[in-house]
Write a structure and sequence with these properties.
The protein is α/β, with parallel strands linked by helices and 322 residues long. 34% of the residues lie in helices and 15% in strands. It has a 7-stranded parallel β-sheet with strand order 8-7-6-9-10-11-12, with helices on both faces. The chain has a 5-stranded parallel β-sheet with strand order 2-1-3-4-5.
């Protein structure tokens, strides 16, 4: 019987968010809750599996790992793209790749970005911790009102545009920049297009909504972060690589700016990762797309991919293999 691995079910939700009965009728299904420590552990734990479902980009599959998994014939990932999977490498090693559509469109990540802005502006997480520790306001400082403040959106696509409209609704002024942004697109989203330098100088809050690429990597480096106002809030719900992490950590450790983060260079965070103890931060564990509706949709389509593959008629494929 074929064996199928469902990876990185960190919240232990996969078993009941989708109907796996059609898959279980033709294969043994094993759910992995914990992330692999490294590539060696991934190779050892997955050696006896014929198919793998990867949750977004949590576990990378470079060509060197694929070469260590000769039994693997199907790699299905959630979402429409996955930079952590070497698709040409999959083809080379005879591994069929499937995806999920991510439909219907969701704005969950934009909603989380708004939540991080509010939490950082009003010290919500710190206030909660202080009450639970038996104190009341002692270690908090007065927050800031967002009405009349300026939000700078870097990347005014689907998610950045939705956040801009949220900000408009609470009375914020919205400015935006990206390399291909037009005045018309900015106006449609309720923002004003400005230069990158102007955005950094004027913004009380900066939120990034770019796809990580060679061009966008380190969009905010040390020089850009130095241009921010003292007390500015930097929100990142996209990818850690958009910001120079060492430079950002240095700024929050100086308590000059506040970082509200949902994404990190390595996930899950190691127990000794400096972000765990960094001041002037609000941290969430990559929850942007993790809602009941989204996860149910991702797992349901993953189960469909597996059932179709087991039946010999694979769907949503990205490559061709013999």
């Amino acid at each position: 019987m074929k064996r199928i691995a469902i990876l990185d079910d960190w919240q232990n939700q996969a078993t009941h968010l989708a109907d796996w009965s059609a898959v279980r009728a033709g294969a043994e299904v094993v759910f992995f809750q914990n992330a692999f420590a490294d590539e060696d552990e991934a190779a050892a734990k997955l050696a006896d599996f014929d198919a793998v479902v990867a949750m977004r980009e949590r576990t990378p599959f470079p060509e060197r790992l694929l070469a260590r998994l000769p039994r693997l014939k199907l790699l299905s990932f959630t979402g429409a793209r996955n930079a952590a999977i070497d698709i040409p490498g999959c083809t080379k090693h005879g591994v069929l790749v499937c995806y999920t559509t991510g439909k219907p469109a969701t704005f969950a990540t934009a909603e989380l970005a708004l939540g991080l802005i509010l939490a950082a502006a009003r010290q919500i997480a710190l206030g909660d911790a202080e009450i639970r520790a038996g104190r009341f306001q002692q270690n908090t400082t007065p927050g800031i009102e967002l009405m009349g403040k300026t939000l700078g959106v870097i990347g005014l696509g689907k998610l950045g545009g939705r956040l801009a409209r949220f900000a408009n609704a609470i009375g914020m002024n919205v400015i935006a920049w990206s390399q291909n942004l037009t005045d018309e697109a900015a106006t449609e989203a309720g923002a004003v297009r400005v230069s990158k330098d102007e955005l950094l100088a004027r913004s009380d809050v900066v939120s990034l909504h770019l796809v990580l690429s060679d061009r966008s990597r380190n969009t905010l480096g040390a020089a850009e972060l130095a241009k921010l106002k003292d007390g500015a809030i930097v929100v990142n719900t996209s990818r850690a690589g958009l910001i120079d992490q060492s430079a950002l950590l240095a700024e929050v450790q100086k308590r000059r700016i506040v970082a509200a983060l949902d994404v990190y260079a390595q996930e899950p965070l190691a127990s000794d990762d400096p972000w765990r103890t960094a001041p002037n931060t609000v941290l969430t564990p990559h929850l942007g797309y993790v809602t009941q509706g989204n996860m149910a949709g991702l797992y349901t389509e993953s189960a469909e991919n597996l059932a179709a593959w087991l039946a010999g008629a694979p769907i949503r494929t990205l490559n061709e293999v013999p």
